[in-house]
Amino acid sequence: MQPLIQVEYLVKRYSSRGVLGSGEVVSALNEVSFSVAPGKTLALVGASGSGKSTLALCLACLERSTSGRIWFEGRDIAALDEKQLRAVRPQIQLVFQDPASSLNPRFTALEIVTEPLLVQRKWGTREMHERALALLERIGLSRGMASRRTGEFSGGQRQRLAIARALSLAPKLLILDEALSSLDCSVQAQIANLLLELQSSFVLTYLFITHDLAMAAHLGDEIAVMNRGRIVEQGVPEKVLGAPSHEATRGLVAATPGSIVTPRMPGGL
């Protein structure tokens, strides 16, 4: 099976200016390579500052990489100009850690989910509303909640709403950047199960970025460990977390209490 997304030697450098005007180059990504097959999940773990979120922004075409290739459905999207990227961005969607900061507090739930559809200008008003209402129901929010504003929802409900908005354009790749970390354990389990159900129904591919090794093991078909801008270890959860070979992975495992390697079982934690 051909990968949906394949990253080859991706580099991202930032230039910063010192007090005296001298420039310093910081490497956020250093020759990162990996691939993810359609309908699969790669869980990306690593310490803060290891490059996980920078990688997410590059894959979502929100940051330009310095060099390297990002093959998406056989096309190098890292080489596309801004006009060409407009056709690609709907296929790759991001869900962030804090939905409160990414959802317009003045919008109703219906307006939040229909906003991406309005931008694309491909549907009439009635069709957009029906599509949005069906998505709200699919992610566990009733049609009666469509007129509520974001402040009326709980944290878990807001994250469901963020997922619905990300799905409105029928993407193929969903990048979940610490999307569960701000939720309590019971709500995390509910959203994780929802993600598995949605993946099965819509054949979604996930890049699941997290610091929670247990959740990475549960959701990920494979786990990749980032350290200082590089992927230093990758494989099935049982191997990576059960018998880690790199010191960065061993450090993450040692800092996690209890058993963290559990088999992925769709439908329940």
Verbal overview:
- The protein is α/β, with parallel strands linked by helices and 269 residues long.
- The chain has one domain: Rossmann fold.
- The chain is built from 10 helices and 10 strands.
- The strands form 2 sheets. Strands 6-7-8-3-9-10 form a 6-stranded mixed β-sheet, with helices on both faces. Strands 2-1-4-5 form a 4-stranded antiparallel β-sheet, with helices on one face.
- The longest helix has 18 residues.
- The protein is globular and about 50 Å long.
- The C terminus is likely disordered.
SSE layout and pairings?
Blueprint: E1 5-17, E2 23-36, E3 41-46, H1 52-59, E4 67-72, E5 75-76, H2 82-85, E6 92-95, H3 99-102, H4 109-120, H5 125-138, H6 155-167, E7 173-177, H7 185-202, E8 205-209, H8 213-219, E9 222-227, E10 230-235, H9 237-242, H10 247-254
Parallel strand pairs: 3-8, 3-9, 6-7, 7-8
Antiparallel strand pairs: 1-2, 1-4, 4-5, 9-10
Keywords:
alpha/beta; disordered C terminus; 269 residues; six-stranded mixed β-sheet; single chain
N→C terminal distance: 28 Å
| CATH class descriptor | Alpha Beta
Q: How many E strands? A: 10
The order of strands across the largest sheet is 6-7-8-3-9-10
Number of helices, counting only DSSP H or I runs of 4 residues or more = 10
Q: Runs with pLDDT <50, length 5+?
A: 265-269
- Let me know the largest β-sheet: 6 strands, mixed
Report the C-alpha radius of gyration, rounded. Answer: 19 Å
Described by the principal axes of the CA atoms, the overall outline is globular
Q: What is the CATH architecture descriptor?
A: 3-Layer(aba) Sandwich
Strand content: 15-25%
Q: Structural class, please?
A: alpha/beta
CATH fold call: Rossmann fold
CATH homologous superfamily (4th level) name: P-loop containing nucleotide triphosphate hydrolases
Number of domains: 1
Proportion of residues in helical segments: 25-40%
N-to-C SSE string, H for helix and E for strand: EEEHEEHEHHHHEHEHEEHH
Mean pLDDT: 91
